[in-house]
Hints:
Structural class: mainly beta
Shape: globular
Distance between the termini: 30 Å
Oligomer: single chain
Number of helices: 4
Amino acid sequence: PGPGPTPTPDRLRGLYFGGRDGSNTFLSTTALYTSDYPAFDDIPDWQVPAVAQLSGAGGVFYTSQLWGYNPTSNPWQIGAVYTPRSGIGGSSRTTTFTMSPGLTHYPNVLHDLFGVSSGERAAGTLNLYGRFPLPKGSNAAAVFLSTITARGPDGTRYGQDVPVTSRDHAVPEGFSVTFPTTPDVQRNRVNVAAAALTPATVSLQLYSDSNEPLGPPRVLNLGAGGSVQFNNVFQEFAVAPQPGATVRFSVLSGLAQGYVSVLDGGLPGYTGTSDPATMPWSWDGDEQVTMFELGSIAGLNQFEGSAAIRNHSDGPATVRLEFFERGIPGALRTTQIVLPSGGTRTYVDIVGQAFNLTNKVGTVVCTSLNGTSISAAGREYAVFRDGGGQQVGTAGQLVPGLTQRDLLRPGHYYGVLNVRQTGTAAGSERTHLVVFNPGFQDATVTVRLYSADQKFEGERSWVVRSGEEVRINFIASALNPSQDGGRKVLMIRTSAPVHALAIQVNASGDPVTEKPVFVGWAP
């Protein structure tokens, strides 16, 4: 599987041992099943690496939301610990809360759970501990989602998903992961941080797009729950901003995770919106990576989609790039690039630059043709301009690079939290669902809508043809036209493996990407 722990579609359920003889004849197998009980020790079961309630540059105010989903019929007790970030001040706080069956939502988690006052400056980690033993073999899984929202002085809101990391997906001692930064260093600033689940020593090092180290690493010693954030990675490492730079995050001891935030603006000569996006880490790459909803189009605003593609292997990577236009099966255009060992190729507008296409939006599939491992991630965003045509800001969303490990598979249910619809036009809150079928057979994708207290509200199925991207706008009203503005949950199952993302759009027009997560087995 490579140098990192092997991620699974949900969590490890069993270990299988088998044997073959010299003629490759299968002999026998033994299956040892694991329990779904939380560990009940000092290591958190989940960690939100960044929660905040504080002011930032340009009068922006940051707050964090937390959603939790309990798919059972019994309430669950969750222990919660807030640990302030180094340099913020304040003390740790501990509480316990109940997750009733269905959806639990805290609009300002630091205030709502820990009583942080409105005038108190707070930022740090949130550790969560499961206190709900499940029957062995249960198909239930807790699901958490967190976002940070930057509210501007004019009332506009720009947010980012902050992945809630389970203990078995954090970075253990002796392993490293890599983060992309940004292809647009003239308009984006980059923050980098480390957060510890247990006492940990971590190393952060910045590399160029040709994989050359940009200065010595920064080594951090963190207590359990401790975190450190550097608000401008190029300034922190005392180097000139470089497009395509990457951050190597290494755990020298303990258990930890990191994150990279790319924010629009805050640089000399360009104010921007402070719109943030959390960039995903990559363990060791994969042979195929899929990014969708990228394009250079003119709609309500001008849209562009940036991307970075990295070679994780020791030798050059020959990579085929394919563009699949939304709603039309099959690749519209194909090209090929070569990446040097450890190298990164960046695009401010990948559909326009790599494929020479405009007024098109869809899916980009990156495939290694020579067995090398690659990763990719991007950002699709609306461009705001002033009366003179100068760019003054963007509002965008993360476009994660999805691998085989991210496929939604038959026999599973996947959940999307925070589905909400307050209208049917721009200026409303709404959720869109996007599905891409990378396989050779058509897939039937069935979506169910439930209220926060688990009342069924509607179901529909869509056929997604081989090599097709399908986007369903206003998914809540597509399933139930009578929307009340409440927060809902989507349940998704599929007849064949597909990739899917939910796009949560707020009243300011800012989208946040949410990946469906495993919640149980379909009957």
